[in-house]
Specification:
alpha+beta; ph1033 like fold; two-stranded antiparallel sheet; 10 helices; 10 strands; 17% strand
Length: 326
């Protein structure tokens, strides 16, 4: 049974026609490199060096290069609510100089998979149907919904869709999504109220740290009551964040502290925000970087006081962990 993937041919499917006419799907990252020779971490470092993407982009790239297989189906999406076409993957990953790559040696969209496009029609889907990452696996439930939408709007495509997606194919389970660790379906599962607190320890630790008044007061003085990332000066919203996760009072050290606005502190603790240990610039997880409220913070230079710099070892360890989780 094939796997199903949505891949965006550019923002709002800008390059859909170009990909369709050249029988391929392409991603527009690091167009001078053979990505098959790089690890996820190496890809992320290249992305940062060339300012070409957020931290989680490396995982999408790796899926495009390694996880997709000939015979898998590609659904070309435009934004979160529209599908532009469907096709079958017919090649392995083609690097930018591969002789079979129709976009070889061009300076954009040079990372390619060949595709036999069998559906070239646009269909609208429910709000937020697709996730933000450029490359994303689709569940069987999503695929069934796409098929129904196409048949409803384009009845003449039924034979092709039945060939690609045989009638009655199993939609009782979903393909695991590596970006979603919660298998429960809020639309079908039963809600049973309980007093048991099942929130993760990281969220509980955020609550505890807000009460560490002495450490916070020291950081307020150290950072002149200004968020190190956003510049926010509303003191009530500023919190003391630990670079090396809090394990005891020894971690209450200025070299291990950041003064962050409450929402940025939460992102930092949930490994959705990091600071590059050499450039001191902000890195965001892809879905955070694509949010209009947080997009301006991507690559933002962190404001550290001149008299005390962050502990390099703690910052490096935090950054490495962020890459592994992205």
């Amino acid at each position: 049974m094939p796997n199903y993937w949505k891949i965006a041919p550019g923002r709002q499917a800008t390059y859909w026609r170009e990909c369709f006419e050249n029988h391929c799907i392409a991603i527009n990252w690091l167009n001078h490199l053979d990505l098959s020779k790089l690890s996820v971490e190496e890809i992320q470092l290249h992305l940062h060096d060339h300012e070409e993407g957020a931290a989680g982009s490396a995982r999408a790239i790796q899926a495009f290069v390694e996880s997709i297989q000939p015979g898998d189906l590609i659904f070309a999406n435009s934004g979160k609510t529209r599908c532009k076409g469907i096709g079958t993957v017919t090649s392995a990953y083609l690097h930018p100089k591969h002789r079979k790559n129709p976009f070889r040696n061009q300076d954009y969209n040079a990372q390619v998979r060949l595709v036999d496009w069998q559906v070239d029609a646009t269909v609208d889907l429910p709000a937020h149907f697709f996730n933000i990452p450029t490359v994303q696996p689709l569940s069987l439930k999503q695929v069934a919904q796409i098929k129904r939408a196409y048949i409803d709007q384009y009845p003449k495509l039924t034979p092709i869709l039945d060939q690609l997606l045989p009638a009655g194919f199993d939609t009782s389970h979903s393909t695991p999504d590596p970006l979603n660790n919660d298998p429960q379906d809020p639309e079908t599962s039963e809600f049973n109220p309980t007093d048991q607190d099942e929130r993760t320890a990281i969220l509980q630790s955020v609550k505890v740290r807000q009460g560490q008044a002495a450490f916070r007061n020291a950081l307020l003085t150290h950072f002149q009551s200004r968020c190190a990332i956003s510049g926010c000066t509303v003191v009530e919203l500023l919190e003391a964040a630990h670079i090396h996760p809090y394990r005891g009072t020894k971690d209450h050290h200025l070299e291990n502290g950041l003064l962050l606005r409450a929402d940025l502190h939460t992102l930092f603790d949930l490994w959705l925000l990091a600071i590059h240990p050499k450039t001191f610039r902000v890195l965001l997880a892809p879905h955070v970087a694509n949010d209009p409220d947080y997009q301006p913070l991507e690559n933002q230079l962190v404001r550290f006081p001149k008299n005390v710099k962050p502990n390099a070892q703690a910052l490096e360890a935090r950054y490495r962990e962020f890459l592994e989780r992205s």
